[in-house]
Amino acid sequence: MESSAAIYRLSALAQPGRLAVFRLLVRAGPEGIPAGEIAAAVGLAPNTLSAQLTILVQAGLLSSAREGRVIRYAARPDALSELIVYLMEDCCGGRPEICAPVQEAAARAACCPPAKSRARRPLRA
Amino acid sequence: MESSAAIYRLSALAQPGRLAVFRLLVRAGPEGIPAGEIAAAVGLAPNTLSAQLTILVQAGLLSSAREGRVIRYAARPDALSELIVYLMEDCCGGRPEICAPVQEAAARAACCPPAKSRARRPLRA
DNA sequence: TCCATATTTCAACGAATGTCGAAATATAGC
DNA sequence: GCTATATTTCGACATTCGTTGAAATATGGA
């Protein structure tokens, strides 16, 4: 992931309204939520929310799809993966004890059993 | 983790200079780097860097320790864990296939073999 | 004590950001 | 075509943010 893309995603998330929207949509899953319902849920004016949604979409964090009169927004899990990987890059540099807790925390947060234990090769060191 | 703390950390990272500093210190490990060397590495004026370091410290992302005339700054891995966990919270809601890729990506990014395979209980569904 | 080095603090400036009201656009149903 | 609903776009405003130059503080050594 490129540095500038990471900045866009981080600053998109670094605002109370947008973070609330993103977390709401992460919880909502792939079906997403129409803009109007999002506005009601997070307590933002429709036009204000529209501006924030635009920023989240441009950052790649959300996808949008029109369904008749409503537009559904959904979180893009890949965008989150990429950002996390970028932030953790080279985080141990040969000292596994440093980033192992980070890894474990991420695994726990994922709140589901590991898909299948695939071969894990240490990239460095 | 509290929402406001997450906002502080995200906006601390959402700026090119600060993100460069944080990543540099993540790579540098627990020994950290003196402020002057950081300034030279990322190409910021000492006073500008000082302001950015203050923001990163206040967000809890860095620790600082004076050593004689220099002040060493180091990344706090726990702060990153907490932020990642917060962003991934409830990310699957009963649909493991959604966040499993995120979890695997995080595990790969950690670039070291899993510390020890401790019991992994699915938190939800 | 005096000086050099390392870092921070202060005040000020231009640029970017978030929110609001009003108007515009898009879709569905009659 | 007309009306109602859903959402976006536009223009303006106050606020916040990042950088700069100058001055201040802290530490170590002669």
Q: Any overview of this molecule?
A:
Two copies of one chain form a homodimer. Chain A has 125 residues and is mainly alpha-helical. Chain A has a domain at 3-78: Winged helix-like DNA-binding domain superfamily/Winged helix DNA-binding domain (Arc Repressor Mutant, subunit A). Helices cover 57% and strands 11% of the residues of chain A. In chain A, strands 1-3-2 form a three-stranded antiparallel beta sheet. The interface between A and B is large, with 59 and 58 residues. The first copy, chain A, binds a DNA duplex (30 and 30 nucleotides) through helix 3 and helix 4.
Largest interface pair: A-B, 59 and 58 residues
- Adjacency order of strands in the biggest sheet of chain A: 1-3-2
CATH architecture name of the domain at 3-78 in chain A: Orthogonal Bundle
What do we call the CATH topology of the domain at 3-78 in chain A? Arc Repressor Mutant, subunit A
Order of helices and strands of chain A: HHEHHEEHH
How far is the first residue's CA from the last residue's CA of chain A?
22 Å
The oligomeric state of the chains shown is: homodimer
For the structure shown, list the relevant keywords.
homodimer, 125 residues, mainly alpha, Arc Repressor Mutant, subunit A, 3 strands, 57% helix, DNA-binding
